[in-house]
Specification:
By secondary structure, the protein is α/β, with parallel strands linked by helices. Helix content is 40%, strand content 15%. The protein has three domains: 216 residues, Thiamin diphosphate (ThDP)-binding fold, Pyr/PP domains (Rossmann fold), CATH 3.40.50; 155 residues, Rossmann fold (3-Layer(aba) Sandwich), CATH 3.40.50.1220; 188 residues, Rossmann fold, CATH 3.40.50. 51% of the residues are buried. The structure holds adenosine-5'-diphosphate and magnesium ion.
Length: 603
């Protein structure tokens, strides 16, 4: 386990070892030569960090090596951990975050000090916003110099910077505190509402040595890191009363429900109650999207008409129009029940008449008990209204999917990918972009839980390759990443990482020459392109070839289908450049309303 120096004890050595222990406990600097002279079995900060992670079942680190954590990655690998090295910390951080979502264990991102830390911070903030458990571990510069602002190498008070962007932030100064610090970080990341945690490890900590046996004793195996939180019986009874009073009930499943891994219980509640449900983007597949009770294809109808809405692990944020306004029924006509582990989420946007606070598994089980002999299924009128709207909308969509237009538009390309996911339901779909995101979400049905990973609560661009890499590493399943050309650009260099680790990732770039559309013009007539445009007819497929992956350029749905199937069959890293009509997209995809437009344009 450690850089051990074998014991040949003499009275003098024992004396030295004792004074050494005292010295280390006092938190002073440590010199390895002194340790060797003392000839006791030693461990150090590097090994203690790794042992603490391993003791808690953490087996993978996502990161970028450099000062002062280079050796931490090396030793972690030597000690049997999987260490996945990225080209940029943001993508390593995104990988860690989605690993957390997929496994319910905190994903670990390891970065160098100041700039590397800041690069990772975007991912940490995104993880916290999305309720994904992760721990960002960054090396940092010397406290004494940083605090006196004396201009150290990569000087920054990283702990202070991280605090507003995470659930908890800790700094460790003494090797003997590493075990406790890692335990606290794990608990903070996964208990209650999951989120990001920052762990600051100053360079000097790593080479601090201590007695190996004392080091082992200082480690903590976290017992029950995310304790069940049972809902109060009165809260459950209140929620059941409200549900039973409903004429037009609706369940909304969010990514908290997907995270909870209470798949069977949730399915049982939906099916036994007969209530139609709407999956949020990353909850798609919790029940198969083809389930007869899915109201996804009648979204606008159910949000407007439902009289009781039960949210399960979904927040009433912008993605649900804050529970009010035109998307919803008139104020006062709708009642909300909310199941969430975070009590402060209740009443965040509108009144919650029946808050049920607890973990989703426990809350849904408790509600399920109330769906008994006295339960009556939702009315036939409500169900048939939803079904009628679904059929009409699905018919409209299927004609668009069949069009096979040339050049391809989004629908004709997505029609092919929809079939591929149907045939390969255990593949993981990663999705980002504007039109590429919004249309793929609607078109591609998911059949299994936690198979759709996307831009989440912030609608952030740049998660594509980080999510794909972690999805492949954590699950071993094939990954299909459907990327807008702009979205892909944020993490494109990580195709090298995908090739280096030979991961089964197939990236399809929907290349329409620009952001939203590829048709904008520069009104001044000079040679600069409009700010929303990229190099015309770029060949993203060539990028992956540089690293030994398979690049394919396709212009028709048939070519696309063949190329994706070949990639999924072979498992080889593949990038398919799919040429999409530059005129096909719409401004900001489905959220054009959030993009203010000038009414007083001069040119
Ligand atoms: P979506 O965007 O899919 O609607 P959100 O991210 O808005 O989902 O909401 C997820 C919600 O789930 C958060 O409010 C979070 O507190 C909650 N949550 C996450 N994990 C659990 C859990 N295990 N039990 C209960 N609630 C959870
Ligand atoms: Mg584009």
């Amino acid at each position: 386990m450690s850089a051990a120096v074998k014991e040949t004890t003499t009275a003098d050595d024992t004396r030295k070892a004792k004074s050494l222990d005292a010295y280390i406990v006092s938190g002073g600097d440590f010199d390895i030569a002194t340790a060797e002279a003392a000839q006791q079995e030693l461990t150090d900060g590097f090994h203690l960090v790794i042992d603490a992670l391993k003791l808690n079942g953490i087996t993978t680190i996502y990161g970028v090596p450099g000062i002062p954590i280079t050796d931490l990655g090396r030793i972690a690998q030597a000690e049997g951990m999987r260490v996945i090295s990225f080209r940029h910390e943001q993508h390593a951080g995104n990988a860690a975050a989605i690993a957390g979502f997929l496994t319910k264990k905190p994903g670990i991102c390891l970065t160098v000090s100041a700039p590397g830390f800041l690069n990772g911070l975007t991912a940490l903030a995104n993880a916290t916003t999305n309720c994904f458990p992760m721990i960002l571990i960054s090396g940092s510069s010397e406290r004494e110099i940083v605090d006196l602002q004396q201009g150290d190498y990569e000087e920054m008070d990283q702990l202070a910077v991280a605090k507003p962007f995470c659930k908890a932030a800790f700094r460790v100064l003494h090797a003997q505190d590493i075990g406790i610090a890692v335990a606290r970080a794990i608990r903070a990341a996964v208990s209650g509402r999951p989120g990001g945690v920052y762990l600051d490890l100053p360079a000097k900590l790593f080479s601090q040595a201590m007695n190996a046996a004392a080091g082992t004793k200082s480690l903590v195996k976290v017992i029950d890191p995310a304790p069940a939180q049972l809902p109060a019986p009165a809260a459950v009874a209140r929620a059941l009363d409200v549900l039973k009073s409903a004429k037009r009930p609706l369940i909304i499943l969010g990514k908290g429900a997907a995270y909870a891994q209470a798949d069977d219980t949730i399915r049982a509640l939906v099916e036994k109650s007969g209530i139609p449900y709407l999956p949020m983007s990353m909850a798609k597949g919790l029940l198969p999207d083809t389930h007869p009770q899915s109201a996804a294809a009648a979204r606008s109808l159910v949000l407007k008409e439902a009289d009781v809405v039960m949210l399960i692990g979904a927040r009433l944020n912008w993605l649900l129009s804050h529970g009010k306004g035109n998307t919803w029924g008139a104020p006062g006509t709708q009642k909300f029940i909310q199941i969430d582990i975070e009590p402060k989420e209740m009443d965040s946007n509108v009144e919650i008449v029946a808050p049920v606070v607890g973990d989703i598994g426990s809350c849904v089980s408790a509600l399920l008990e109330g769906v008994d002999g006295t339960w009556s299924a939702p009315s036939v009128e409500w169900i048939s209204a939803i079904n009628a709207r679904k059929e009409a909308n699905l018919a409209k969509m299927s004609s668009k999917l069949m069009k096979h237009s040339m050049p391809m538009d989004f629908h004709s390309a997505l029609g092919v990918l929809r079939t591929i996911i149907k045939e390969r339901p255990d593949a993981i779909l990663v999705n980002e972009g504007a039109n590429t995101l919004d249309l793929a979400r609607g078109v591609i049905d998911m059949y299994q839980p936690r198979k759709r990973l996307d831009v989440g609560t912030w609608g952030v661009m740049g998660i594509g390759m980080g999510f794909s890499i972690a999805a492949a590493v954590e699950t071993g399943k094939p990954v299909l990443a459907i990327e807008g050309d702009s979205a892909f650009g944020f993490s494109g260099m990580e195709v090298e990482t995908i090739c280096r680790y030979n991961l089964p990732v197939c990236i399809v770039v929907f290349n329409n020459n620009g952001i939203y559309r590829g048709t904008d013009i520069n009104p001044t007539g000079d040679s600069d392109l409009a700010p929303t445009l990229f190099v015309k007819d770029a060949r993203y497929d060539k990028m992956i070839e540089a690293f030994g992956g398979v690049g394919v350029h396709v212009t028709t749905p048939d070519e696309l289908q063949r190329a994706v199937n070949a990639a999924m069959d072979s498992g080889r890293p593949t990038l398919i450049n799919a040429a999409i009509d530059p005129a096909a997209g719409s401004e900001s995809g489905n959220i054009g309303n959030l993009n203010p437009q000038s009414l007083v344009r001069k040119k």
